[in-house]
Structures are given as C-alpha cells and as structure tokens.
Amino acid sequence: MTELTIVQAINRGLADAMRADPDVLVLGEDVGVNGGVFRATEGLFKEFGGDRVIDTPLSETGIVGAAIGMALYGLKPVAEIQFLDFIYPAFDQIVSELAKFRYRSGGQYPCHVVIRSPYGGGIKGGLYHSQSSEAYFAHTAGLKVVIPSTPADAKGLLATAIADPDPVLFLEPKRIYRAVSGEVPDGDQRVPFGEARIAREGADLTIFAYGAMIPPSVQAAETLAASGTNAEVVDLRTLVPLDEKAVLASVEKTGRAVIVHEAPRFCGFGAELAAILAEKAFFSLKAPIQRVTGYDTPFPYALENAYLPNAERIVHAAKAVVAAG
Amino acid sequence: MGKAADKSPEPPAPEASPDLPADDLPKVYRAMVLARVMDERCLTLQRQGRIGFYVPLQGQEAAQVGCAWALDSEDWIFPAYRELGVALVRGVPVKLLLDQFIGNSGDVLKGRQMPNHYGYREFRFVTASSPVGTQISQAVGAAMAARWKGEEIVTVTFFGDGTTSSNDFHAGLNFAGVFKAPTIFFCQNNQWAISLPRERQTRSETLAAKAVAYGFPGVVVDGTDVHAVYRAVRDARDRALAGDGPTLIEAQVYRLGPHSTSDDPRRYRTDAELQKWKDKDPLARLKHELLTSGALTEADDAALWETTRKDVVAAFASAEETSPVDPLTLFDDVFAQRTPQLEAQREEFAALLKEGLIKP
Ligand SMILES: Cc1ncc(C[n+]2csc(CCOP(=O)(O)OP(=O)(O)O)c2C)c(N)n1
Ligand SMILES: [Mg+2]
C-alpha cells in the first residue's frame, strides 16, 4: 500500500502499464516534456522517451484518429485530451469511428484505445474548463465510460481500461486530483468494470453519484445521519458498463433514491438511472426520486459555487424524499 | 447575387504601402505601454488571488497594437484569448476589462467566462472562446456576410502558431480561399503552444506558407516591428476590400511570459532563448525609435509609465468595489427567453439561495 493522490495514482498506473507492456504508449498535447498540464504524465517522457510519450500537434481529431490507427495496427495507445471541454474537435473520430470500428467490421477491427481526460468543475474554469459531458459518450454505443473517485479506483480502473480490448473513455475528476488521497495497493491490482462501490452503507436512502460528486455525497450522508437518516452512497465507478444489479439492490433495500451529478439535469446520466429505477424497482420505491445536478445552463465562471451541487443541496433533496414517504 | 460579385476582381494599382503616420507613433507607444502595465498588474493580482487566472501578452504588443491600428473601427475582430492589445486600441475601457477579469456586475459578460475571454459588441470585438481555432471559420462567415450586405469592412481573426493545427484553421482558410472572403488571418507565431515549440507543430517552413495551398497570399512579418505589422495589415485590408480575397499574416513574436498563470515555462524552455527574445522587446524597440526621433524623452517615458500604472491601479480598485453578479442571472441568456424547465430550475435555485443552501 502507498498513500497517493488521484493524479499520482494515475501517473503510477500509466508508468506501470508502460513498463509491463511495450505496446502501451501515451500521446496528447503537452504530455511529454511538460508532463501534462495537470502533471498526470510527469516523468514518463524521461523514462520511456519521445517515441512512447508523444507530444502531438494541437489537434484532438489528430490525437484520436492517430490513436485509432495505432490500435488497428496492434498498439495500445492511451490518448490524453487536455480538458474534456476540448474533446469536441475529435467527436467525429470518437463517435463515428472509435465506437463503431469493431461493429462495422464484423469484429475484425477492434480499437484498443483509452482516452483519458480531466472533467468537471471546481477549479474556476468557466465554460470551457469545467464541463461534465459524460452523457454524450455514455449515449454512444460501443464506448465504455469510466469515472473513478478514489486513488485506488483511479489506478485499478486505469489498469483495467488499458487491458480492455474496447475503447474506454476514462474521465478524471480534476477537482479532486490532489484534494483526495488514499491508500493504493501496490502492483497490478485491477478494479473490474461494471462493479459499483458502496462508498457508505445505509438503510434509509440511496445517494447515487460518481467522480467528484462522491465527497459531497458522503458529507451529505454524514449530515443526514445526525438527523436519523441512514444514507447509503453508491459510487457507480463505471457508467458503461453500468452495475445495474448494485443500483437495484440498493434501492430495493432503502426504497429511496437521490441521484447526484454535476452535469446538467436534462438528459443527464441521472435520467438513465431514474428510468432504470422506474422500470425495475418501481414497487420498491417509497417516494419519488430526486436529482441534484448542475442546472441546464452552460457552466458559469463567477457563479461556479452556485452551480455545482453541494452537500447542502443533497441533504435538502434527501430530506424531501424521506418526507415524501 | 452578392454585391462583391459586381466588383472588379482586378487588384488596385500597386503603390507603396502606407506607413504608420508619424503623429500616431506616440499614441501607438502609449497603447503598448498600457497593455504591458495591465499585464504586469494582472499577473500580480492573480498571484494575490484577486483575479482567478490571467493570460499574458508580453512580447506581442507591437503585433497586436500595430495590427489593430491598421484597421477601421467598423472592422470586426474575432480574437483568441490573448488579444488585450487589440481590445485596448479598440477603445475598450480598462475598468470594463478588469470587471470581466473579476466577473462582477459591471462585466458585460455577466461573469460567465474566465478572465481574458471578453467580448464587446459595441467595439466589434467578438466574445472569445477557449477551444482554439473556432473563431477562424466564423470570421470568414462574417466577412462573407459583410460583403453580401455591401458593407466595406474586413474581418480579422487572431490565433496562435499552435492553432494552425486545428480543424477550423483548415476549414476557415479553405472557405476564405474559395469564397474570396474579405478576411485577414492574423497569426501570432509566439514560438510556443504551451510546451510545444513551433517546429514540433508543423514541418512547414513558415506558417504563412500554408496560405499558398489555399490559393491566397501568406506573408511573414517581424511582429516586434510595429511599422512592418501595420503595413502588412494595411496591404491585406486593401486587397480584401478590392475584392482580392484573404491574406494570412504570420507575425513572428515571442511569448515572454508563461502561457497562462497556470503554466511554468521553465519546464520546457531555456533562459537563453528567453533572453534572446527579451533583447528584442517590442516596447524597447519603439521607445528607442521615439527617443531617437525626439518624439519622446526619458522624462516623458518615466511619467507615462507612472501615470499609466496609477490609472490601472485606480481602475482595479474601482472594479474591486463593483458589486458581484446577481446569482439569478445564471439562468439568463441560455435562450432569448427562459424555457419552462429553466423557469422552474430558477425558482428552485432562488429558494435554495434564500435558505442559504447555495452560497455563490
Ligand atoms: C481545442 C483545444 N485544445 C486544447 C486547448 C488547450 N490549449 C489552450 S491554449 C493551447 C495552446 C495554443 O497555442 P497557440 O495557438 O500557439 O496560441 P498561444 O497560446 O501561444 O497564443 C492549448 C493546447 C484548447 N484551448 N483548445
Ligand atoms: Mg503560440
């Protein structure tokens, strides 16, 4: 066990994967000499050189397109998109190509590609350094979408992503890159996809969240405990594949659900969760589901704190759910 | 159908490019000093936590001020995030810019964007975006529209060396070539795109050379020479208005400061390189010229810096006293009118705000 921050765990995970498998390489903007603008690739250029830690021209479509080509040829590229907000120039390569290559070729051409990208608010980044656009990608058949919230999960899920033969979008909660640290198992300890983590056990209500929304959700659960409501916090960890079993099991136990994400509410990932609960756990629900989310506006600069869900809003919603039944 | 179709495609009779009027030079210098002073001040304010972020322009003042000086106030600017010098020449008041850096109620943008991403319709200065290059194709469309409406203006779009690798650089230049759009592509090659040096961005010998493949001229200018920049932009503007289409100008400069306040350039570039370019500081260059011509004395210069610093400090003090944005504006401008869903969210938000559950 080693105590690491999330960004350190990702850095270790990349280095371990590159040491273990010569087919793994890293490419992106400022990932080499500079070690990444968040330092996630710090030291890799020195250890593995410019052929495996590639500073690319400023072109996201080039990064993803080239990563696809490398994968078709048998490498396992890990591409970095500097901020999730800058992924859109590569949207065509991701949605039309990366996600569909295996399918459209009848399985001949799988794409063993990982795209890592810091996502989310909390760093005063305004419209273009704050977005949580996971729903676009979760909506795209053929892409796996992974969002860790702890250092151990960051390293373990990254190892699984790099080993996975399918394309994985690995979203990193930049707001807690350094704010959250914890014990990380040494060695190749993988965290499987499709298994949610119970971040806190409880019997009265379930809070579903992921990524940077886990700390305020756990904090809300602590506050609720003081007033006699024992909340469970389920960290989804992988949106695709989703651990539907864990989602349903928790609500069958608690009968109440609050869904938290920082992305806008309308058509956000929470809508899918709510639909699954309505379809498959309807008779377990004692009260209507509530969502605590970002608002349906672009991500603001000055009003960032007002926009982002916080523990107070989660508590407020949870109390309303409990009061309703 | 377009008015320009009626125009002769013949270029105007060649004549020597007009130089910057000598009378303007002290004003040009003043604008450059103001830009430098704001830059220095904002870097300090960011370190003190009084503004959240800042993108400096040090080293690029002559390119920006020289370019803006060559334009008409009716011309449209499509900037990136580093074009403070252009905004100042356009006449955007310092206090208004500082309001944007704080994101207070005086900010025209209502606190929506990070510092440096301002825009002022009044000054024909289009609001900046962070994703690089997106402004390039937009500038071309605006130029096509202006021509279609028969208006004698050009659009000028600003971007960096790194941005020549973006999707919209290609799309914009291609459209401009095909449609002979009255657009000036003003590329400030400051030698770095964060940590990527110019020579790792493209194998092309110059960035200007890229214009050739799109079927229009590309020119390289020394961006530390305000005269050279002015002439190049005047030429490009004349060509555009004569119906001869776009020009790509590569102004060769150097980013003397960090990419932004989040960047540490010591990680990727040498002091020797920095020093080499510091010796070509565009402000020192113009100052030397003005001292030599007698248009400026050392005493004038010292007084200019001092008053400029005082003015900027005073403007910031006033911006700092300006009230914060009203939290309820969060829901404005998503659409012309709030949808029922947004109206409901706004009400929910207002209630939480009242209960103190949301702290802006
Ligand atoms: C599409 C996109 N990708 C990545 C970024 C992150 N980024 C911000 S500025 C920058 C470098 C831009 O370099 P250049 O075009 O030379 O302009 P400069 O900043 O040097 O003025 C990068 C990579 C971005 N803003 N937009
Ligand atoms: Mg540059």
Distance N terminus to C terminus of chain B? 52 Å
Strand pairing plus helix content of chain A: what structural class?
alpha/beta
Helix-strand topology string of chain A: EHEHEHEHHEHEHEEEEHEEHEHEHH
Predict the CATH topology of the largest domain in chain B.
Rossmann fold
Please give a structural write-up:
- The complex is a heterodimer of chains A (325) and B (360).
- The termini of chain A are far apart.
- The model of chain A has no long low-confidence stretch (mean pLDDT 98).
- Chain A has twelve helices and 14 strands.
- In chain A, the strands form three sheets. A seven-stranded mixed sheet of chain A has the order 3-2-4-5-7-6-12, sandwiched between helices.
- Chain A has two domains: 2-184, Thiamin diphosphate (ThDP)-binding fold, Pyr/PP domains (Rossmann fold, 3-Layer(aba) Sandwich); 197-324, Rossmann fold.
- In chain A, α8 links the parallel β10 and β11.
- In chain A, α1 (6-20) runs parallel beside α7 (151-163) and α8 (214-226) packs across α12 (311-324).
- Chain A has helices spanning 6-20, 44-48, 60-72, 91-98, 101-104, 134-138, 151-163, 214-226, 244-254, 269-280, 304-307, 311-324; strands at residues 2-5, 24-28, 53-55, 76-80, 114-119, 144-146, 168-173, 181-184, 197-200, 205-209, 231-235, 238-240, 257-264, 290-294.
- Chain B has 360 residues and is of the alpha/beta class.
- Chain B contains 13 helices and seven strands.
- Chain B has helices spanning 25-47, 61-69, 84-90, 94-102, 134-148, 167-179, 198-201, 210-214, 226-241, 271-278, 282-293, 298-321, 340-354, and strands at 76-78, 155-160, 183-189, 192-193, 196-197, 218-222, 247-252.
- In chain B, the strands form two sheets. Chain B has a five-stranded parallel sheet, sandwiched between helices. In chain B, strands 4-5 form a two-stranded antiparallel sheet.
- Chain B is globular and about 65 Å long.
- The N and C termini of chain B lie far apart (52 Å).
- In chain B, 50% of the residues are buried.
- Residues 1-14 of chain B have low confidence and may be disordered.
- The structure holds thiamine diphosphate and magnesium ion.
- Thiamine diphosphate sits between chains B (82, 130-132, 159-163, 190, 192-194, 255, 259) and A (29, 58, 60, 82, 86, 89).
